[in-house]
Amino acid sequence: MKHIDEWRSSTLACRYAQAVAQITTRPWSIMEICGGQTHSIVRYGIDRMLPSGVTLLHGPGCPVCVTPAGVIDAAIAMASRPGITFCSYGDMVRVPGERGSLLSASAHGADLRIVYSPLDALAIARKEPERNVVFLAIGFETTAPATAMAVLQAKREGIVNFFLLVSHVLVPPAIDAILSDPESRVQGFLAAGHVCTITGYAAYEVIARRHHVPIVVTGFEPVDLLQGVYLCIRQLESGSAMVENQYSRVVPREGNRGAQEAVAKVFVVQSQQWRGMGEIPASGLGLAPAYAQYDALARFGGRAIPPEHSGVCISAELLRGRKRPAQCPAFGTRCTPEHPLGATMVSSEGVCAAYYRYRRSEPTPADDKAGAAV
Amino acid sequence: MNKPFDFSPACPAPVACQEVVELGHGGGGRLTHRLIDEIFRPAFASGPDDFTHDGAMLDLGGEGARLAFTTDSYVVQPLFFPGGDIGSLAVNGTVNDLAMCGAEPLCLSVALVIEEGLPIDDLHRIVESMRGAAASAGVRIVTGDTKVVERGRGDGLYVNTSGVGRIRARAAVRPQSVMCGDVVIVSGDVGRHGIAVMAVREGLGFESEIASDCAPLAQPVLSLIEAGVDTHCLRDLTRGGLATALIEIAETADAGIELDEAAIPVSDAVRGACEILGLDPFYVANEGRFVAFVPAAQAETALACLRRFDEGAALIGRVDGRARTRGVRLNTIGGARELDMLSGEQ
Amino acid sequence: MCLAVPGRLLDIDGDDALARQGRVAFGGIVKQANLAYVPEARPGDYVLVHAGFAIAVIDEREAARTLDFLATAGGSLEAGS
């Protein structure tokens, strides 16, 4: 398949791995914040192709993983109400809230439909006007434009039985939060290429300057990732801290204007809870007043989303790149994909799920057991 | 320098308690196996090898009295899909399970649970399709049963087929017969059926039609046996796909299997569909495909036999000799990685 | 969820700003995508599709250039320095 196969070339990947080894003179820690990148790295063994001094940290890049448990619980409550058809991306339905998941709610009779696009949920609302259709709108900036368009179409057509439970999150505030943490070991970033397709990367230039950290906008196939790592290390070795664009075949510096405008019209930026990380100001999206009629929480929710509280799951440490799944006492024993204790094990892009699926039976490297990765 | 944010590490720890049967239990992965191990095997099995292969192999004593016996139910939606329907699927599925025991399929029973309101025309079409499939596979449908349930309680139609066959393989065809050094051969490209079914459900189109691979396997299997190939183990690929079948065999046989990702045949349409749906083609359902474990020395003969039926037959891996590598490992870009059973549906 | 997949735009249906759609081919399978965010896309272009929307047109020249990056910009590395 064009624009995929050439970026999965084993030969090219190996050449980049060698190039990285040739320019690396010191240990470096680089974080990526994109569930797709995490998955690709672990699935293809990209991290194992790099010299041992280079550590790839997995940040809070999976929107499924960072959706607050309170939102899941609100979703389950809504889905369980008669008259409501609840639509969700497939990845979300097995994520545990306080008491079960959307999937277990559906086993108990909730009308749950898995969709690939917010437009699918809107189509259901059109086809079944007697049902109230609620869509769980999660995702980073990559997905917010899709949600926005569904709202704009609903408004234009006067559809009244369509609602959104919104939990969209923004990446730059999370990067800022991670880098502002005095215990952070992150020295360089790979920025999520698909997020930047929409937003552009001007906001990352501010972060790079503020924290003196190189940031490389990167795709998520194996050759993309290895190129991204190469460019990041090239900067680290020379002490530079700029934004570079490895994913230039897709990402323009200004991003996608039309998508940005749609999002700015439908949403407002607000404070947001990140599961495993707590509340980060100005890091989420809520419906703008002009579109308040589509807010499922206002219509069906009742209570505000309660703040997070801690448990045995160490997602917090994982999402900040301070620990690896193998260091969690529950990993692979009490916490498995069949009995997940946290979202990072449930989501197909979650870091624990990736390690469980692809690396579980391998001996744990010494640095994974010894403590923080760097 | 910004002031650091106040992090409150958080993650509730619910315990997933399964007091009801979930859809995942039917997916062919870990949950299904848990159901078999915890509920069915304790109740029904009389020996450790029971319920470990596609059919039961019975020795009734006397000359030519080794029989294979199998049963399957079909609950597929939609009832009609590119390349087949629930009827042809049911006939071929049971014929194939018998073939996987190294048996020549002889006869089938058919039990139908019909939902009130199913158009008689649809029933006609499906029954005609079963007649055609049975004729192609050389089996007779000799007995059956019909029930009708109220509207809303049946998804249109559920089909159960059971089958009996005469075992023709010289030695027992089952995972326990797999040997170190055996090669793994797949009879054609993988993932077609699951994608064909999903395509209808999800409104996907095709540049060129992607038919399901629903087809009878008795002839390719018998051709291997007639050519003198020692079919140590045969397994048709159904729900759970290629990966699940091989993982099951590896676990039952206590063997290590090594696969080459680049050697596993996947059609362009299946690859495209998997990319956009976020699926792994190695776990997508198949009908009309099987894997064969044969001695390395017979690999060429086996491939020649199978390529007469499907050019896509390919050698995809081998059984590793070292005991500590039990399971299935896939050779890919950054090295080898372990393939795991999916927990429920993909 | 980050899943954005490249495909070839086959045709465009309509010109409504919000609901403009096109059929996109992904290695042999064809799916509709909303084209509202890629007004410049033309049949034959490769687009990146996410959650039912085309979000970018792939720049073929940039793709080729990036793929050749090591060979061109990194020439001295190839020589085994």
Sum up the structure in keywords.
heterotrimer, A: 374 residues, alpha/beta, Rossmann fold, 2 domains, 6-stranded mixed β-sheet, 5-stranded parallel β-sheet, 11 strands, globular, B: 346 residues, alpha+beta, 60s Ribosomal Protein L30, Chain: A, Phosphoribosyl-aminoimidazole Synthetase, Chain A, domain 2, 7-stranded mixed β-sheet, 5-stranded mixed β-sheet, 26% strand, disordered N terminus
Written account of the structure:
The complex is a heterotrimer of chains A (374), B (346) and C (81). Chain A is an alpha/beta fold and 374 residues long. Chain A has 18 helices and eleven strands. Chain A has helices at 10-23, 35-44, 46-49, 63-66, 69-79, 102-107, 118-127, 144-157, 171-180, 193-199, 202-211, 222-238, 257-266, 296-301, 315-319, 343-346, 351-359, 366-370; strands at 28-32, 54-58, 84-88, 111-114, 132-139, 162-169, 188-192, 215-218, 243-245, 267-274, 278-287. In chain A, helix 2 (35-44) packs parallel to helix 17 and helix 9 packs parallel to helix 11 (202-211). The two termini of chain A are 38 Å apart. Mean pLDDT of chain A is 88; it is low at 367-374. Chain B has helices at 30-44, 86-99, 120-137, 192-202, 218-226, 241-253, 268-277, 299-307, and strands at 56-59, 66-74, 80-81, 84-85, 103-115, 140-149, 157-167, 183-186, 205-206, 233-236, 256-260, 290-294, 314-320, 327-332, 335-339. Chain C is α+β, with helices and mostly antiparallel strands. Chain C has a single domain (5-78), classed as SH3 type barrels (Roll). The longest helix of chain C has 8 residues, at 60-67. In chain C, strand 4 (46-50) and strand 5 (53-57) form a beta hairpin. Chain C is elongated. At the A-B interface, helix 3, helix 6, helix 9, strand 11 and helix 15 of A face helix 1, helix 7 and strand 15 of B.
